[in-house]
Amino acid sequence: MLPAQPKAPMPTLAAAQPSQFAVENVDFAYPGHAVFRGLSLRAQPGEFLVLLGPSGCGKTTLLNLLAGFMAPASGRVLLDDSPVRPEHPALGYVFQSPQLFPWLSALENVRFGLRMAGRGSEAEQRALAIEHLALVGLADAADKLPHQLSGGMQQRVALARTLALQPGVLLMDEPFAALDAITRIKLNEETLRIWSQLRQTVVFITHDIDEALFLADRILVLAPAPGGIAAEFDIALPRPRAAATRQLAQFAHYRQQVSACIADLQLQPLAA
Ligand SMILES: Nc1ncnc2c1ncn2[C@@H]1O[C@H](COP(=O)(O)OP(=O)(O)OP(=O)(O)O)[C@@H](O)[C@H]1O
Ligand SMILES: [Mg+2]
């Protein structure tokens, strides 16, 4: 009989160790199509950074570079001061579509990543999956299959699946873009509630100005490809943010500033 493998330590709902990112002078092109030239940016530990830009400017490409799924032609992408690798345990990715296994329950979908990472016993994995389903407000849906859940609930399961691995950085690629406006606003609030509890570094991509303003500590506006960062805005709206935040004169002021910047760039945001 083989000796028992040592188990990787179990994560808990306690705060993750937030990571930092540095993109240094990155060039990237698909064959015949330059996307970034000399792109540089940083995300500080625990920062909520939002990248705002129109369709086709390279948002998903940038997130794939940050995740180490693709390598820059030149320049460097550093996660906690080392070149990023996709298998880095600090990395968590939430995609635009939930990408759940349709034959697995919500709980088993959340548990899947823990199983793959070999974290804990089955009982520990189940307990952690339930904790994270509760964190995203889905404690009662643990046994449901994805097709029994709404689009917003499916995206919550996807978020729980990623959070259960306790990432130090959460890369979110327009995670709520396919949802109706009311669900999206609700999930924006949920995202901030969870972030205030776990405090990872978040890099969140959107083409929606209000979503960007509501969430961000800092917004970077991406220029059309081939480009880089066109403008940067520190968003000093008070936290915790809630529905009333969107009614503040300061919110309207920021919206006007960011919209004017985008108009100056002759960008066309897809959402109002
Ligand atoms: N595999 C690929 N091969 C060639 N060109 C690509 C590839 N993937 C993306 N592109 C092009 O690179 C540019 C950036 O694409 P990317 O998907 O990063 O944009 P995006 O900002 O995420 O857009 P969206 O808001 O529509 O998701 C686009 O012009 C796109 O057509
Ligand atoms: Mg994209």
UniProtKB/TrEMBL annotation:
One of its GO terms (molecular function) is ATP hydrolysis activity. The keyword Nucleotide-binding applies. The keyword Nucleotide-binding applies. Residues 21-249 form the ABC transporter domain. InterPro entries: AAA+_ATPase, ABC_transporter-like_ATP-bd, ABC_transporter-like_CS, ABC_transporter_ATP-bind, P-loop_NTPase. Gene3D superfamilies: P-loop containing nucleotide triphosphate hydrolases. It comes from the Bacteria. Pfam families: ABC_tran. Keywords: ATP-binding, Cell membrane, Membrane, Nucleotide-binding, Transport. Belongs to the ABC transporter superfamily. This is NitT/TauT family transport system ATP-binding protein.
